[in-house]
Every structure is written in structure tokens, then in C-alpha cells.
Amino acid sequence: MKRLGGGDQSRSVAIWLWAVAALVFVMVVVGGVTRLTGSGLSITEWKPIMGALPPMNHAQWMDAFEKYKAIPQYQQINAGMSLAEFQGIFFWEWLHRLLGRLIGVAFAVPFAVLLLMRKVQRRLISRCVVLLGLGGLQGLIGWWMVTSGLSERVDVAPERLATHLGLALIIFMGLIWTGLEAWNGEERSRSPGGWSRGAAILLGAVFIQCLLGGLVAGAKAGFVYTDWPLMNGAVFPPVEWGKGALAFLHDQALVQFNHRIWAYGLLIGGTVYAVQAWRWRLAEGLGASGFVVAAALWLQALLGVVTLMHAVPLWLGALHQAGAALVLATATVNLWLVRRSQPRLFVSGPRSRGLF
Known about the structure:
It is a single chain. The longest helix has about 35 residues, at about 85-115. The protein has 11 helices and no strands. The protein is flat. About 65% of the residues lie in helices and about 0% in strands. The chain is an all-alpha fold.
């Protein structure tokens, strides 16, 4: 990548931040597997320190199993499962939590060392502190999510799952963005506002689609209405409007419909953005980055349709979740490039003002 800033670049800081972003990406994918395997409620306690180790002997395993037997998910869904089957779902939730702890260490320890070495640019210190705080908050929200399924529900509340996923993706975007800032140095120019607004709207739309996907996952809506482009032969499926506003969070038909409709709008918007960027031959590769985002959107949509029509097998569900994070990453980089580059327009006139 061509550097687009001043002289305060720090490759070591950028590489560290991107490495942590890669760990967050892995955690998002493992979180998807945890959900698809029904593993998220297998650990019924939150022990940030002592919970780093799994049960080490038969007695400890039986103790964890007995605690799981006390919650509705076991009693209504998994009654009669063997210890070996419990260990299988326990592993995924334990791995998910272990990755969270690893990310905390991978961020906090190098951050302290780089601060002592005065490698972190002053303007980025506060951003890194915010990211560290968000990481701690993510642990609390994760436990808040789990508690929703320990007493009355057989799974976690969809809105809490979407919140947990959304914060993970915010941290992911923040790490990528701050890494780009560290690699390239302080901003020296800014693109016309229209293009910045267009790229920001595109990124926001991608993020909202990820949240809608989180609601689909939380409501297990991907396992119903597995035909496409219709939903059980209808354009608009029957919705339990008696749930009121909660229908937008819990009703399987409605959350899947919203996810589909937003995807169609996102595909159209992303494609228009890419075509316009290419038409106006923006400098610094902005036209190319727009096409990368559009291509990622179309590939992700195709993967979503295939995943749905196969009733969300584990490997396709995990791949679709990974794809969502990658689309978000491309949209994040695209916005950063737009904001940090001064487009050189080959077409003069009103069109040179940008998208919006």
C-alpha cells in the first residue's frame, strides 16, 4: 500500500494492531461455530481467571455437566446427552472464551511495551485505550448474553447476540482503521465530503446487515424458509405481529425477511458506488477499492443464498459469518482510503463533487 500520510508512521504498531484484528476475526468465526453447534450455554459460570482452564479430571467434568443439566436447554433440548457429547459442546464455548482472553493479553501486553518504547504515536494512544476498554466491555456483554439463556430460555436472546456480535465487529473495524493510521502516519489531506459520505453510508449499511444477520442467527431463522427468492412460496411470509415490536427481533420470518431485503438494497447501493467510482477514475486506487467492496458483497450474497438453501450446515454457516467480517473489513479500508486520499477526477463538472 502506498503511504498516504506524514512522517510519524509506525510499522510495528500497525502490525500489532492487525495481528489482534486477525485474532478478533478468528473469534468471530469461532463464535459462529459455537452458535451453530448449540454450545454457547454449556459453560454456566463466568470465571474470567479460573475459567481459563477446562475441567482437568472426571470429577470436575461431572460438576460442570451437572450445572448444565440444571438449565432449560438441557432439560428441553439435550436431555439424555452423554458426558462425551457434553464435552463436545463445552469445547467450542471454552475455545471461544479462551480466544477472548488471548485477545486481551495480545492487546494489553504489547500495548504496554510499545508505550514504554515510545513507539505508539501520541494521537493514537487514546484510540488504543478506547479499544482496550471496549475489549473489556465485550467480555461483560458476552456474559450478559449467556445469562439470557440460563433460566427461562433454551438459547440466548437474539438482541443480546446481535449486540455481542456488533461490538466485536466495532472492535475489528477499530483495529483495522487504527492500524492503517499507524502505518501511514498523520492525515495530510481529505477527500471531498461527498465521497466520504458515500463510503461511510456504505460501511454503515454493511454493519447494519451484519447486525441483522446476528438477529437471524439468534432467532435460528436460517433453519426456516430455506427456499429462495420466495419464502415458502410467498413474497412476504406470515409474521406473528402479536409480539409487537419484539417481532422485529424474535420472529423468524420477519428477521429473515429484513436480512434479505437489506441485502438486496446493499447490493444495489454497493454496485452503484463501485461503478460511479470507476467512472470518475478516482486517484489512489479508490475506484478499485470500490469494486473490491462490491465484489465482496456479491460473493457474500451468493454464499448466503447457498447457505440458506442448504439449511445452514456448520461449515457453510461459519464461512458465511467469516465472509461478513471480510466484507466489513473491505468497506472499512475503502472508507479510510477515501478519507485519506485526494481524488484526482478525470471528469470535470458537477459530477466531480462526489456521490452525495
